[in-house]
Amino acid sequence: MPLDTSIRSVLIIGSGPIIIGQACEFDYAGSQAALSLKDEGIKVSIINSNPATIMTDKVIADHVYLLPLTCESIEQILKEQKIDAVLPTMGGQTALNLCKEAEERGIWAAHNVRIVGVDIAAIEKTENREEFRKLMVEIGVGVAKSKIANSFLEGKEAAQEIGYPLVIRPSYTLGGSGGGFVHKKEEFDQALSRGLQASPTHEVLVEKAVLGWKEFELELLRDGNDNVIIICSIENFDPMGIHTGDSITVAPAMTLSDRCYQDMRNQAIRMMRAIGNFAGGCNVQFSVDPATEDIIAIEINPRVSRSSALASKATGYPIAKIAAKLAVGYNLDEIENQITKTTSAYFEPTLDYVIVKIPRWNFDKFKGANTELGLQMKSVGEVMAIGRTFIEALQKACQSLETNRLGLGADGRQSRNLEEIMHSLEHPSWDRLFHVKDAMSLGVPLESIRKITHIDKWFLVQIMELVTMEAELKRYSLNNIPTDFFITLKQKGYADMQIAWLLGNVTEDEVYDRRKELGIHRVYKMVDTCAAEFPAQTPYFYSTFEDENESIVSNKKKIIVLGSGPNRIGQGIEFDYSCVHGLLAAKEAGYEAIMINCNPETVSTDFNMADKLYFEPVFWEHVREIIELEKPEGVIVQLGGQTALKMAEKLHEKGIKIIGSSFDSMDIAEDRGRFSDLLKEMDIPYPLYGVAESAEEALEVAHKVGYPVLVRPSYVLGGQGMSIVINDEDLEKAVVTLLRNLPGNRVLIDHFLDRAEEAESDSISDGDDCHIIGLMEHIEPAGIHSGDSYAVLPPFNLSDKVIGLMEEYSRRIAKALNVRGLLNIQFAIKDEKVYVIEANPRASRTVPFIAKAYDVPYINIATKIMLGTHKLKDFTIVRKLEGYAIKEPVFSFDKFPEVKKELGPEMKSTGEAIRFIRDLEDPYFRHLYKEKSMYLSK
Length: 938
Hints:
Layout: E1 9-13, H1 25-39, E2 43-47, E3 63-65, H2 71-80, E4 85-87, H3 92-104, H4 107-110, E5 114-115, H5 120-127, H6 129-139, E6 146-149, H7 152-162, E7 166-170, E8 180-182, H8 188-198, E9 204-208, E10 214-222, E11 228-236, E12 249-251, H9 258-274, E13 280-288, E14 295-301, H10 306-315, H11 319-327, E15 354-360, E16 381-387, H12 390-400, H13 418-426, H14 432-441, H15 446-453, H16 457-473, H17 483-491, H18 496-503, H19 508-517, E17 523-526, E18 540-544, E19 558-562, H20 573-588, E20 592-597, E21 612-615, H21 620-630, E22 634-636, H22 641-645, H23 648-653, H24 663-670, H25 672-682, E23 689-692, H26 695-705, E24 709-713, E25 723-725, H27 728-741, E26 747-751, E27 757-765, E28 770-781, E29 791-793, H28 800-816, E30 821-830, E31 833-840, H29 846-854, H30 858-867, E32 884-890, E33 911-917, H31 923-930
Parallel strand pairs: 1-2, 1-4, 2-3, 4-5, 18-21, 19-20, 19-22, 20-21
Antiparallel strand pairs: 6-9, 7-8, 7-9, 10-11, 10-13, 11-12, 12-15, 13-14, 15-16, 17-18, 23-26, 24-25, 24-26, 27-28, 27-30, 28-29, 29-32, 30-31, 32-33
Helix pairs in contact: 1-10, 1-11, 5-6, 7-8, 13-14, 14-16, 15-16, 18-19, 20-30, 24-25, 26-27
Pfam family, one: CPSase_L_D2
Family: Belongs to the CarB family.
Domain ATP-grasp: 133-328, 676-867
């Protein structure tokens, strides 16, 4: 059936601010869907309250509504314009729940809006645990023994009947919210209470726990004609018991027998066809008994998910884009394959490589959190790596994580504490993968590791191979490693730095030079959805060590944009927004725009955003070899947060041009000592400070500058490791901890301006002129990290004199640092005196927020200035904002019930929303202002 021509306008519901369990994979899906519908001549409107994402940008949709995700907002939109259909499957659980509520309140019917892509009955069948269980029994799909409970009494009866261990799954939640395992009777009451409270319908499923079974996912697409295809099989490295969002996952599935896989496919197709009127992407999770290969269904999600973003990037098959077309009437055989352009979308991708996804956690931000992984998701982001083998992809994924690991071990950070390692194997946390290898290195038998972890033996044998190879490598010196063995090491994912560490007394550069002498180079392979059976039209590459290089270098002038790697607290989706705009601006300025990034959830790693995409770790060795191959005019590091900025020194050393502000400008801003000296020279006030390399020096500095003091390491983002201390004892403790965690770093000690107001400026400088993008005043006092503060644009309570000084200092600092591009400055204001706390010559968290509030494409302008193709005077900048815009931080403390909600100089928020108010009499604003100091802590 071709396009339904009665659908001329569609509303896509977004997923709101980034929280643990619902991250930027839904913005990727929403952006893809919007562009896909616009291709069909359909007017697209988006409702989403998240200002940091590209999804809420004018380049994506015809109308963007930055409104709270409520039925009231939906009614406001429907009164303003004619909407024919609503697509709720792109915005995670938030969108489905809102769509369902609007349906129950009769809003869609009153405005004659159709729900496309899914119907309410399908949501009901899949989200209501009891309905789902009944349906599975009806169609002959196995499920674990379970009972539904709406009260304590029913829950206790169910537990008695089924027996322990149990799993509690609340209805209508995402990211395993409120769920958990119960191993013994004493734990049951608390777990049941949490589950009943977490479910919006106060309903839980009490189910027999199949701990230790293997977990698999299938990503499917179905059209209105009941055609179903399987895009990708995904195997969880971790067994049942760890939420799939917190599991290491591998695609395609590695340890499934063909018989079991065919059985799983058939069951998934049966499930998908049974859930009612549904056209689009769907995720099905199964559990398999490793001994008997019995299969049971865990759940089915009638929407795109975190896994479908991963599957899209893993296969090159754009699930959300195709799902949107299916929702408006097309069948699979009527849509072209987006990569080959010659085959139809009605075929299943084939992979001739292996994908590994590893989640990224931020437990360091939640002091006192229970870091053991379970049913409730706790990770804040993820990385994906592509290799020819599982082990190559696994090592590349470890290099992508940005946890100071050089790969899977072989980097001097391994543990030799057997007791700690064995505890970690039994109680999995973020570092269990590393401890599996550490256990093998210490001689723990492979079978013992399998029994404790329930990780499939095939994966363990692969990791064991690394241990054997490392022992062999230590027999050689750099000059006598046999070429074949050297090639094998590189094919197994070893970084030059790991090889240098294993050999001892050699540097990374020496290893690099030696392998180049031996003719061992990276080659780049294309992701083409069809294992090279048909020619692909999309330039989407990964590296490996083989003979044939598929990345053809053009003779155009090129720019490389470095991405921001995995999402984490302090570095989120706002940098992806910046990277996408950077790519678009570079293309407009006549360059071939090349992207390097490893985050599967983002729009910047969509294969049609850049002219060329390298899905690779933002890790020096990988970046260096891409630069050697492509020979760009330069590299943009300003848009990818601290990840990209950290590369600036290496690029500078190697004589590679940094586009925009120079390395020296960045270094002055990052080195608090150099920066304060600059301010002193310019006669700009700053808090008294000193630098210490030991606890003794720190005490001297603190006594000189006076308590309270702010303690922080150099070169960090998101306030990592910062604290406010008020006495010698606390200071000693803080400094010793910092120097232990960040060896070789210097500790900065500033006088903390107690009860000061905090504000910030963002600006663009072209070397001659400086344009202030926006000034924001924080509602909370100084001491709470700017990312955790409610911030108001423009300032609401600062005098003209203070605003004038902030603007003057911004211009003078931009000139002194010779900024080309973006600059963010943080200020503290006390007794009408303006102090400069820090300056960052790069894109900040707040630029996307200001760009949305004022409706000006600031990143596009800044990129063209960085490239030197434009000056500020070439742009006419007209701000559009009536009243004020408030940046609202959003926290995920509910995932860590044991953590106190205290705020300080270290950032803890996972995302943000935008809210517009007409004036300062607004009751919402007045409430915020009243509570402004409540959560300030150290």
